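Lecture notes, unit on protein representations.

Consider one protein chain, 192 amino acids long.
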Amino acid sequence: VTLGLEKAPAGSRLHAVDTSARRVRWQTTLEEPEVGSLTAIAKAILVINADGEICRYGMQDGNEVWTRCATLQGAPGTQAVVHTRHARVLVRSTREIAAVDFTSGVPHWRVTDTTGFQDAFAANTDTAFVVHADGSIEAIDHQRGVERWRSQPLGEVSAMTAGDDAIYVATPDRRLLRFDAANDATREPSPA
């Protein structure tokens, strides 16, 4: 099955195509014409529209699963979605990271930064990692939404990925840095 999104005058259309049978399985019209993010996770489709609403649709039928969509506060900008092992979806926008219950769509916690976040965003089994505008990396506890540690500013970060033991950060000047995922990151990062 392949998912697709098509803009239409009355709103965007989300559809699933059975590639082996070459037919449309289902089609759903979304109210918002502008969709910022489309992510398939665990037999669900998460859509973030241009207004920052996060809605969950069923992979089998395209029906809306949550009775009420969660909403990001502030300008949505570039969004990223990461599914966690704690039945939560982590969502990052330009000025906010939020944990939303995967089953109900109810937000559990929010962390905001008025100066904004860079695009790089990663998570491991119990921590989310976000890059602030100044390039400092903040480790946020999945369950409580509280800061575990925050690094010194690194400047611009191109990409970031996280495992259970380490976070790897790439910078535009071709540096690849490694941070210990669990400990305070006040130490100098070691080259990977």
